[in-house]
Amino acid sequence: MMAETAVASLASKPVSNISPVVDRDRSRQLRILSYNIQAGIRTRRYSDYVTGSWRQLIPHHQHCDTLRDIANLVGAFDIAGLQEADAGSLRTGFIDQTRFIAEQAGFAFQYHQSNRRVANLAHAGNGLMSRWEPSGLAEHALPGAVPGRGALFSWYELPGITLLTVIVHLSLGQRARARQLGYLAELLRGHPHVMVMGDFNASPQTMAVRDFAATTRLRLLTDQCYTFPSWQPQRCIDHLFISASLQAQHVHVGAQTFSDHLPISTTISW
User: What is the pTM of this model?
Assistant: First the structure.
């Protein structure tokens, strides 16, 4: 049975009614994946954005096939963060995609952060799937002239540390991204063990990303990871950041073209 947790929209503190789950025998290692799944819409060339635009509004049988393929991929990981996951709308046949993938992949815990809802046509946000229930969750709406971007925080009581994981999906606009990363840096102040993952829509060379890394003292793992577009990766815009207290190995860009982004993953230890 999937774990259910009520989290107040725009909450700024961890929710207190979630019981921590700690496996004392677990090795000090976690397999992490981040993936912008494009609401289960397979885009394999630029022309698909036009010819397949109807799939953003009308359900298609391929959606479930794509979600099952994604579930087969994420099932190898301990924590998976999704961006552009739909919580259930007309375009997905009212399927909560995070829940569907989590159930298919056998995750014990799943949660969806709703960031942008367009009537009943689309309901996009960030999705969290984990082998263990987090000890806390918090949602943050990211600043911007156009609302609809968010960050999902989750805390895990692990042997020796409390790990904070953050799933983000930043805006397309440069000014908005800079504001969002500055806001996020403030939220992360004082947290010693952090992993940030998601679609930043920005390369490592941009000033906002460089300022974020300098302010938070987080280490960027994906400065050479080209993830977009999935059919001919030329842009490095999906990222993983970790604290100095964490170590990473096997930073990897997947070859799966289930979306217009490629998935990124790593194994962290402490």
Answer: 0.85
